[in-house]
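Appendix B. One record, verbatim.
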Amino acid sequence: MFKRTKVTDGTATGQVGFRKKSKVPGVMITQYIEKLPEGKSHPDFTRKPIALTIQEGKFAFFKAIVTGDPKPTVVWSRNNGDVSDPARYQSKYDPNSNEHTFEMPHVKPDQADTYKCFAKNEYGQAMVTVVLNVIEVGFKMTKAPQQQAEVANCNFKKVLKRRSKVVPKAEEPEKKEGEIDPKFWELLMSADKKDYERICAEFGVTDFRWMLKKLNEMKREREEEQAEFVKNLSDLKPIHINADGTASFELEFDLLDPSSSIYLYKDGEMIPYTKELGDKMKHCLRKVGRKYIFSMRDLMPEDAGFYQLDVEDVNMFSTDFKMVDFLVKIQEVKAMEREDAVFECVISAPLSKLMWFGKNMPLEQGDKYDIEVSEDKLIHRLVVKDCMVVDKGIYAACAGIKSCNAWLVVEADKGAPKGKKSARKTTRAGGSGTDLQKVAQEQQQKLDKEREERKEKIKAAREAAAEAAAAEEPEKTADSGAGKDKGAAVEVERIDKTSVAATTTVAGDSGSGHSAGKASGGAKQDGSHADAGGGHSAGKASGGARKDGSIADAGGGHSAGKASGGAKQDGSHADAGGGHSAGKASGGAKQDGSPADAGGGHSAGKASGGAKQDGSHADAGGGHSAGKASGGAKQDGSHADAGGGHSAGKASGGAKQDGSHADAGGGHSAGKASGGAKQDGSHADAGGGHSAGKASGGAKQDGSHADAGGGHSAGKASGGAKQDGSPADAGGGHSAGKASGGAKQDGSLADAGGEPGITSGLSDILATRGQPAELTVKMNTDCDGAWFKDGEPLKSGGGISITKDANIHKLTIHSCRDTDSGLLRFVSGDLSTEGRITVGDVPEFDEDDLHKFSKPVIVRVGQNAAFKMPFQPQESLTVSWFKDGTELKDGGGVKIVREPNHSRLLLRDCLRSDTGEIKIQLKNPFGAVEATSQLIVLDRPGPPEGPVETVETTSSVIEIKWNPPKDDGGSAVTNYIIERQERGHSLWTKLGDVSAEKTSFRDRNVTHGKKYSYRIYAENPQGLSDSLETADSIMAGIMILSGPPGKPKVVSTSKTCINLTWTPPEDDKGVPIIGYQVEKRKKDTNQWLALNAINEPIEDVNYAVKDVTEGAEYEFRVSAINESGAGDASPPSAMACAKNPNMRPCFKDPEDFLVVRAGNSVRVKISYEAEPPPHITWLKDDEPIAPWINVINTEGMSQLVIPSSKRSDSAIYTIKAKNSVGEAFFDVEVRVTDEPKCPGPVELEQTVYGKVAVSWVPSPDQELDDRLYYVVSQHDSNTRMWKTVADRLFANTYTAHNILPGIEYHFRVYAKNDMGLSDPSQSPTWGANSNRVPISSNGVSSMEISFERPPSILVPLKVHTPPKGYQLYMTCAVRGCPTPNVSWYLNNTCINSDKNYYITNSCGVCSMYILRVRENDGGEYRVVAVNSLGKAECSTKLTVRD
């Protein structure tokens, strides 16, 4: 049966946690109580924080939304550090969105960590973790080793000394003439047969028959070696570039031993990798089924090389990763629609396929695209067939990490017929514009020449070897034996050097193999199984010896003590409980073969079944008691149970003679809960047994019940003694004082308060086993009394003394035993007092367990540290854990588990700072005991102490010195590793290592005059430390400076830039020049100012000086820079003035027309360029301008300003710019006008049926403004809408067409110019009424009917009370003839033109719509309808609710 897991995370005292499952993955919920009250809930996350990767210095934040009733409190923390600094961490809560936000402004790399979010309320806790990754700005190569050292799961720091069979370039021996590179054979063994010819051509091998013969021999040997470690090696795919910018190769195989190590090499050097494609490592090796995929990200040119994958020392796969460049890049292509477009390029090395992309999508051969490759695989083309306008965009060609791109511009075919597709064109557009074939031939010749040179060397080497073979054959025969021995010695030495320091233990398990002590199966004679439990015990778990072949099991194997099965002769099982006991759990001896069980096996003391003669069961309760839980002696075979066995004192059944049950209550009391003595076999119960004081049943002779109330009193609640068998009750038992019944003979109740009396009564006491105890009762008079224990009278003797001194009565127990525990009562006449004595021990540890616990626990950084201490189970036992004197609490990285017979402490993700003393304390009411241990956390050492001192520097040697690190990481430093970087290079090279005793290093491989930087790492068994780096570069030898360059020459000048050029120095002193430094000096000053730093040299022999002041004169000089620094300066140049060269005036993008409203100011701005500055003149219609017209001239611009313009200012204004080089003119037309006046009266005349001539009197402004024209609008009674029927009319007449009878028409005429429209001139009505023919009545009188009526409200407005933020629709119905004009008012303010209200009027239905109601929308709304006959209105009130 499974038990519910109980945890103590975040629980209060007495609470038990239950794991609950959240709907959101990754959320851990702990519920404090098993059943929640109705309507209440534990915390949970509806939105958990999301992992974040962000750049250093940015704003980082996590957001979470939690639920729970009552409302949970949210707390944030991190694994490695605190979040109490308000400048770096800010917790916020938005009540509107219910979002909890954790913000980190200007995030830094040290804030990268795992963060935790806790949501707590009184019913539970929810916790979720989230990871923050911070990308450092300005990544340096110096940090790469630090990243490598952080990969603990791959254990690279132990195996970096391993080497591939392909020797690194730096360690390659000098090749003999014509010797074949070992990479040739490695590539062939991993390549397809179709690639043999290409590989042979690349390495210059022409004898294919010899190559195939030797390759087959090598393959057979290699397959035999591979068969020792793998099987089913297949599907080898060489390295290639993926679309996401990574490179990868693949292979499939099955490991014979899953624990075999896999290594990766690049050019013979081992490279570290991670098993997850993350941000920490550049290289990754992932396993998907049988497939192993090696991938590499952030590709750089230096990643090109020879890659190998080995299993142990056997190569499985080799591939060559080459980087190619573009000799000719693709160019922009302009193509016509339905024409083919061609992109073509030339690369530096043969490549069978390039990756082509169009608009960021990969392109493949198909109906739309043709991908062509030349025979030599140097020229690559992409043909985009049948180009359409949608095909335009950026196209790119990628070869590894190199790429080039260009635009495809598709122009529409204007000659194609409208609505039809133009015909497909047979022409091609594009191409590089250069002779690609010539470039490719030159590159091919270069490659062929290199290949032929390799072939000649191989041929010459073979001929020389053949000639020397015959002469050296005897010598080779004599030396062959010695050579093999020497080779074997070298191999042994290599294996010894490259072996891993930290060995991985192969588990030999007795059980599950986790035991730190001894887990052994018991001895058997019949060949049956003897199992030592789960193998987790720190002590000894052993199965019992048997003779019959049956199984003897030592429980679960988790005990820290001894769990043993009892000896049996009959073949039945003897089990030692669950095996969890820290003490001794043993089955009793039986003769009849029936099982003898020692309870659940959880007791820290002794749980034993009683001796029986009849074969019935004798059980010692649940086995959880810290004292003695024993069944009473019986003669009749009935059960005697000692309660639940949980009492810290003594829970015992009373003695019975008749076989009935005697129960000691629930057994949970810290005192004594006992049933009274009975003679008739009826029950005597001591209440609930929960009292901290005394709850006891009175002594009875007739077998009736004597109850001491509820047993909750902190004082004394006692039932009086009765002779008649009636109940004697001391109230409810809740009094903190003294409630005692007096002695009566008739069964009635006697109240306390008479004489004699008890002035000092008994109380509950705790007594230590083996120590004396004394109980005293003081009376107010001298009188006799008797002592009773559990209802039995006591007398002196048997370790008990009863004395009386006047009115003081004493009971002394000389040496307390477990049997002395019980309820003591003193009775004097009708008076009595009682108190419970509880005998117990101070907690103690087993000596073996204490010795094991005292041994230090040693872990590595990031690992978990676990401590376990067994002890005897007891009630009221408090277990506390301390670290360096500070008590540890459960939560965060600390996990404390409390079991009945042991306690465990788990420290997660230990840091180096966690090293210290660990102490466990057991405390009960009798005393406390402590045990201590040590936690040692091993880590990488700290960096060596600086600064780095330069002991010696010469042209051939540099010697440096440093100090050992302050923190060795918990284990001694084994050696130091030294790396070097040459100035101007980014690569760090490992020079070697020295022992820990030596803190200096001599670098003998230096070049005179060059500067070097060094960094030192300390190494211990845990890994490499951070580096100590030299502050400045160290030069080898003395400085060698270059001679002076040639005198600088001024190429050109302007007011913002002076261009210089010079010649290299004639004497560079034999040291290459890496660049130049330019200096300037202003005229009439003596200070030379450098224009660039020495570490930022100018690589070319020309430079544009932009840091100049217009009109100032300068001279310049140049110094050559080499590895030693800047050399002698050149002679200064001639003085150069920073000014523009002379040029004729020209105007920049001027506007030639300007319209201005009369009365406004006129501003005409003209920009120009000229050197020297020109003379500016303005003219109006070729005449000088009036004096009130202002002209403002600034550098490069002239502005004409007329403050208040009039129509008479309209004219053509001319600007004239003249200097010594030439002159320029430009005309600007300025028109000053105003809104036109309306035209005169409009007349209508019908000349032809269906046509009406509209004529009007011209506007008064027609003669003043030649750009004025007219616009005619028409309105008819059918559509009731005005529409423009004529525009830009320069005449004064217009003919309207399609004029129908029976319809009324109206016309409006507007005058319009550059300023806008005039007011309209309205025409008379044309149509039904004006053309109606009168009809005679012929004497018949008729009554005229009129439909006109004043406005009225058909449907009034209703009252509305919408909530804030909701929409509102308000409506009413109005009628009237003629149609009334309807206006809406809010609080007597018209809102018809307010954009916050959408108002409509459709056939008398008037509506008003509010999208979102605001507070200020509340008030009185009123609708007013008005026509020529009257007015009507209605109103309502709008109340906005919150």
